[in-house]
Input
Amino acid sequence: MSDRHDLGMRVRRKVLGDAHVDRAEAAKTAFDEPFQNLITESAWGTVWASDGISPRERSMLTLALLAALGNFEEIPMHIRATANTGASKQDVLEAFQHVAIYAGVPRANHALKLAKQTYAEMERE
Output
C-alpha cells in the first residue's frame, strides 16, 4: 500500500475508531476493494489528514454537507466520530441550523433526528 493509504488508515482509525474500521475492513471484498482504497487514500489520507482545519471543524462541515445533500446514511457514523474529533452536541446543532437555513428545514430536521438517536445509543453503550 502507498504512504497515503497508510496515513489514511491511521486517520480513519483515529476519527472512526478501531472497531468501526475493523468491521469495515472485514466486510471488504475483491469487488469493493478498489473503492475502499480510493476513500482511504483520498477522504482519509488527503482531506481528513490535512491540518488546514481542525478535526472538530471537519466533523461539523462533514455533518452539514451530509445533511444538506441528503446523504443521511453516514450521519450516525459521523455523529459517533464526534467523540474523537471534539465536536460537541452544540457544534452539531449549530451545523444543522445552518443546513436548515441554507439547504432546507426537512433535511436539517431529519439529520437532527438521526443525531438524537445516535447520541442516545452512545449514552446507553
Observations:
- The two ends are 35 Å apart (CA to CA).
- The chain has a mean pLDDT of 97.
- The chain has seven helices and no strands.
- The helical segments are 3-16, 18-27, 33-47, 55-68, 75-85, 89-102, 105-124.
